[in-house]
Every structure is written in structure tokens, then in C-alpha cells.
Amino acid sequence: AGWDFVYRADRVEPTVFSRFFVELYDAIWDDDLEKGGSLFMAPAADKTMELILEWPGSPYFDDVATPAKESLADIVRLAFRRAVAQLTEAHGPCGPRWRWGRANPVTIGHLGRMPGLGAPPLAVSGGRGIINAASQGHGPSWRMVVEMGPTVRAWGILPGGTSGNPGSRFYDDGIRDWAAGRIYELLFLRSVDESQARIAGRTEIGGGR
User: Fold this and answer.
1) pTM
2) From CA 69, how far away is CA 158, in angstroms rounded?
3) Residue 38 has what DSSP assignment?
């Protein structure tokens, strides 16, 4: 009841809600998709949420596979019990192991898909379909924020570093900051001749003859 609906890595509530919503979604639609059911495809999650909020008396909440007539409240309780049972089986009694970042760690692999050359599992806030869109095996490879105006400023970060060479100090120097949601101010040049103290070097590519 006290959850602020933010998927923070150190909170248990996101873990419970995510598992609960999967179970609730399945409880609503599975019986209508089986042989003899009235649907060919389950509606999307946003339409399912609209159904819950706008039509709590919808006949789709009844499980047609049982003789009883279930209500929305019935399947909400059922889905919650199933979610808690699955989390308990996977992570033990409710506690630190249920925290979002621990129960759903983000893994960053090497671009060459070479085992052992990626990053260890990371506790990251956010999740699939959220602004900080990081899930267990997928996420934004480039995160950028741009401030428009007379003077354009931009910030960005890669979830690794600027080098794919494991022997380079730039190989994984951005991972911890990326996981924590931090970003670096980018160098924004307005011309090729502009001088900046942050420029480490220049590469000039000549045209072919």
C-alpha cells in the first residue's frame, strides 16, 4: 500500500507486482484462448488494464473452465497467491532476495557474444516498458538527454565503455554509472575547427581520388 510505483532496485514491491500482473493477465485470458474459447489472441496489457479499471464486471473475469462464476476480486486474489507462491519457490521467504535488482538482475554481454567477457549481473532500477528500459537481457545501449535552446547541451552514456577490448581501461568504465542512472555531459562542437580542452585527438579522413 505504501509503494510509490517506481521500480527501484532495492525495493521488493516491483518484484511482487510484476509477477502478480503476469499471473493476473493469464488468469483473465487463458481460459478464453483454449479450445472452444471465444478469443484467438489475448488483448494487449494496456487494454487489459483498461478492462480492469473501466469494466470491473466484465464476463471475461469469469473462468469458464470452472463451474463457479468468478469475479475480478476472485481472480485478483488467485493471481496474488500464485505470484507469492512462485516468488517463494524461486527466492525463498519474502526478504532481501525479493528485491527487484536481485530477483531481476540485468546482464550485459560482450558485443561479440563471447562468454566471460561481459559484465557481472547488475542491480538496476527500471524495467521493460519503463523509461529506464532495462530488463534481464535487454536494455538501451545508448542513453541520451538533450537540452534544447540557444546553447545546446547533451548528456549520454553507454552501458559499457568506449572500447570493446577487455584489456582496455575503457572497456567497462561506464557500466556502474549506467546501472546507477548517471550520465556524462557530451562534447558538442559546432564546427570542425572548434577548439576544446576536452578533445583528446583528431582523426582526419581524406576523400578518394
Assistant:
1) 0.80
2) 52
3) S
